[in-house]
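thought: fold this chain, then report.
action: predict
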Amino acid sequence: MKNYKFLALGLLTALLLSCSDDNDDNPSTGSETIEPFELSDLDPSLPSFVSVKNTTPEDMKWVKVEELSDEFDTWDDTKWFNSFWNYGNTPVWMVSENSGVEDGKLFIKATLRDDPEQWFQTARVHSKAQISFPMYTECSMKTAHISAFNTFWMNNGDADNRDEIDIVENNSNPTSECADQSTKPEGFPWTPWFFPTQMNSQYFIAKDGVVERHEDNHDTRLLSRANPNKGDQWNEKYHIVGAWWIDKRTVQFYLNGEPAGRVTTDQDFTRELELIWDLWTGPECWLGGLPEKEELNDNTINTMRVDWVRTWKLESK
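observation:
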């Protein structure tokens, strides 16, 4: 199981949100004003941020990686496969039948399994191809609205030896107990009350059981006023979430075409990584807590969906 303990400080996030509300009426990304836009107007042949604010190095170009891109018209088993290892100390049980392509979208569904211990039946989807920096990948996804983590991430290795980039982990519906700030001890470091709009991005580098990690948690409420998805929960709309893996120690995250935090590692990333999606849950409040079992029978809220995924390599012109 990934050792997720989000150390985002609630007071800092609240301060950022307060500051964003006090900005003038000019929507901006960084210090530059941008014009209002629609996500549907972004150029699909390039990373979404190129249409919003192009920061591609002048001597470089983006080249599409077809093996790691898909519009999900059908399930392509030359590109994707399921894995079946389960997160420890959780009720999760992975099966292939809880994922697939339907109505032009990749889906991962949580259903109720007839087992007292592993009752959260779900799925995980990997890419067969792997990739390393410099590259950019993004997908358009909408989350299930149950207390569970909807993820898009990159990984290669195991718990003790791996490189991992978690582009997004979102729980749009944490339990009321976990979201109730009044019950939290002083200094409680996680922010489940922000989860419905929070991005939760991080990395891990594990070598011989010693793990380095750091997070950079963004929020849809921190998007510019120009952004059509500003302030929207992850289950309400499709959000475009991506990562520019710049070099062996730097990853820049993006949300709906705008910069959404950056991490810089102390050690080098050394592995090529797979793209992965999954849907899972756990009892701890830093995950948002467990959903009610009956929610897994509700097909209106139990499914995360990915409209498309697109990946590019950055190459010299």
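thought: worth noting. Residues 10-316 form a domain with the Jelly Rolls fold (CATH 2.60.120.200).
final: tokens above.
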